[in-house]
Write a structure and sequence with these properties.
Chain lengths: 403, 226
């Protein structure tokens, strides 16, 4: 594609203003996890915005309008593309931006622009559309293995129900103790829930969305929404923050109207069950635990209190907080589909999370995101500091009294 | 020399509006592209909060109180100084502009210190990993302009009547003689250098702040609503 085509086509009007509104103050850098581990201002948020501003000027500025757009240097575009894909899209920069630029949504849009120009995605990210098209998941694993290795035999799934559970690809293939915990807790609550057959529970579309490869998205969303609608679903429960994020923010756009069911993160559903007395956690846990807020759950959709409500209801537990938590949480390194490409960055960020948890003398590090779960566990392999890592529902499922 | 200065004035004036037009064109084109859904409700509260964000720089205070102090003082004093300067542009001078003369004078003395403070934080403290050269140059230029202004106010006063006639002449496209003050010519020329460097975020940042407030108000409804 010619490099003189407009650079604003993939941006919303608000995002074009955002690019112009960056004051280049650099406050965001203090909160950028990629900066922490690379110390390279070239991949920093203000530098990315400055570069993209130049691209817009070249194709859409007054000079371009009067005398025609000028071609942007390919090398500059390649450097920019690498920088925008190295980001974990955690959104901490936007959360701490003195102007309030919504970077968690801006970076994926810029990635989409790079894909249209043949400059993205990077590395194995390019295999995602083919894998999802062929096997229904980004890991290119067979559908027959989606539930089988972890699904507890004693749990019954209804054919139709107002409640549905979506396991998600990363949970099902890479963080199985997490999804196993989810269904055990849902089972303990006692309300019938349904699940799609493994070959129908395809990718939610987030890996494609976040890498800027939107071609298959609408089809995936339409298939999933139709399947849940046919089962009479009114509430779709999911534990993956990335799935939950795209379901709430983008599925309605691809579906073309409001979804016929509401989306809930599993901690919301379980916190409600605990408050209403439908789930009782009687087994004590005399431990100091520290909870890590996933970026796409806290900054993404504002689920901050519910995980703490769930943990706080466990007798004997002491809940610790990271220095940065809630809306200001620090990325563990697994976001933005960068973990498979910029592996070393992700490992360093994961180890920062482990370091702080150990420093706070926590007995366990509690996570509630399958990507965080997979990557932080990987970061701990061969690391001098060790801590027990447990998913929140994995923990809760182990504290439910049998019978 | 005098004619050259006048030509430059009109060139800068034209370039300023062309630049603004260029940006407005990009903004206008952007309104024709994708529109992200904006959550309804709580708009009034968002507007009120945005107003306080603009006046008090709340968002900056939240992330860097040290820098906030310098930036807030700089913007307030600069505003007062600019208001004070309106007496050279308006004829007759409205009463409200006379009222800001004393505050504007005091602000003129504070302004360079606020700029020095910001530059020290930006350049010499470890907390900043990134300093935009353009921003540093811009702040340095304002510092020099403000110091020359102070010199004219305190020590080397130019012919005020001549200055006003010169400015009014420029605005009316019938330029009068440039006042015979080297400091004034320098002060005025540096302002001409400054104008093309004016950041356009002074127009767009308030709009983005408004969007950010709307988003904050809507966040609890993203997944917690019915």
């Amino acid at each position: 594609m010619a490099n003189d085509r407009s650079f604003t086509e993939e941006l919303s009007s608000a995002q074009v203003l955002e690019i112009d509104a960056c004051t280049q103050c650099g406050e965001c850098l203090k909160h950028c996890p990629v900066q922490d581990v690379t110390n390279n201002p070239a991949v920093s948020p203000p530098e990315k915005i400055r570069m993209f501003r130049e691209f817009i000027r070249a194709t859409d500025g007054l000079k371009a309008k009067l005398f025609g757009p000028s071609e942007v240097d390919r090398k500059l575009l390649q450097d920019f593309s690498r920088a925008v894909y190295e980001c974990t899209t955690c959104g901490a920069c936007g959360q701490n931006c003195p102007v309030g630029i919504f970077t968690q949504r801006l970076w994926p849009r810029l990635r989409k622009e790079m894909v249209k120009r043949g400059l993205g995605p990077i590395g194995v990210q390019a295999d995602l559309p083919k894998a999802i098209k062929c096997s229904g998941n980004p890991y290119d694993k067979p559908a027959s293995e989606r539930y089988k290795p972890w699904f507890p035999e004693q749990v019954q799934v209804a054919e139709r129900s107002a409640i549905a559970y979506y396991a998600g690809c990363t949970g099902a293939y890479e963080a199985q103790p997490m999804v196993k915990g989810d269904v055990l807790v849902l089972n303990a609550i006692g309300e019938p829930f349904t699940m799609l057959p493994p070959e129908e529970e395809v990718c939610c579309g987030f890996p494609l969305f976040i890498t800027g490869q939107h071609d298959l998205l609408k089809d995936l969303v339409m298939r999933l929404v139709a399947a849940y609608k046919a089962r009479g679903v009114k509430t779709l429960v999911c534990s993956c923050p990335c799935c939950v994020n795209i379901m709430t923010r983008d599925w309605p756009l691809f579906y073309g109207e409001a979804l016929p069911f509401k989306i809930r993160h599993i901690t919301q559903y379980v916190a409600d069950a605990i408050k209403q007395g439908r789930l009782k956690l009687n087994k004590p846990l005399n431990e100091r635990v520290i909870y890590h807020d996933p970026c796409y759950l806290s900054r993404g959709v504002g689920v901050i209190e519910e995980p703490r409500t769930v943990l706080g209801s466990i007798p004997g537990i002491t809940l610790l907080e990271f220095e940065r938590y809630g809306l200001n949480s620090r990325c563990c390194g697994s976001g933005g589909a960068a973990r498979k490409v910029f592996h070393e960055n992700a490992i360093k960020m994961g180890r920062q999370t482990i370091d702080e948890a150990v420093k706070k003398k926590a007995d366990r590090l509690i996570l509630s995101c399958p990507a965080c779960y997979a990557k932080v566990n990987e970061a701990m392999q061969g690391y001098e500091k060790q801590i027990r890592i447990t998913d929140i529902m994995e923990l809760v499922s182990g504290l439910i009294e049998e019978g | 020399m005098e004619k050259l200065l006048i030509v430059v004035v009109y060139a800068v004036y034209a370039a300023f509006w062309l630049r603004f037009l260029g940006h407005a064109l990009v903004w206008w084109n952007a309104t024709q592209t994708l529109v992200e859904p904006v959550a309804s409700g709580a708009r009034v509260k968002a507007c009120a909060l945005t107003a306080t964000d603009i006046v008090f720089f709340n968002r900056l205070f939240r992330v860097n109180p040290g820098l906030w102090f310098g930036e807030w003082v700089f913007h307030v004093t600069l505003t007062l100084v600019l208001l004070r300067h309106l007496r050279y542009v308006l004829n007759p001078v409205p009463a409200c502009i006379w009222w800001v003369q004393l505050p504007g004078l005091i602000a003129g003395y504070v302004l360079p210190f606020s700029l020095l403070y910001i530059l020290v934080i930006r350049l010499f403290t470890n907390q900043e990993k990134y300093a935009s050269l353009r921003n540093v140059f811009f702040l340095g230029l304002v510092l020099v302009i403000s110091c020359i202004g102070l010199l004219m106010q305190a020590l080397f006063k130019p012919d005020i009547v001549g200055v006003k006639l010169f400015i009014l002449g420029l605005l009316g496209f019938s330029p009068a003689t440039v006042p015979h003050s080297i400091l004034f010519v320098l002060h005025f020329s540096l302002v001409l250098v400054l104008i093309p460097l004016l950041p356009t975020h002074i127009v767009t940042a308030p709009l983005v702040m408004m969007e950010a407030r709307k988003r904050e108000q809507a966040l609890p409804l993203v997944i917690h609503g019915e």
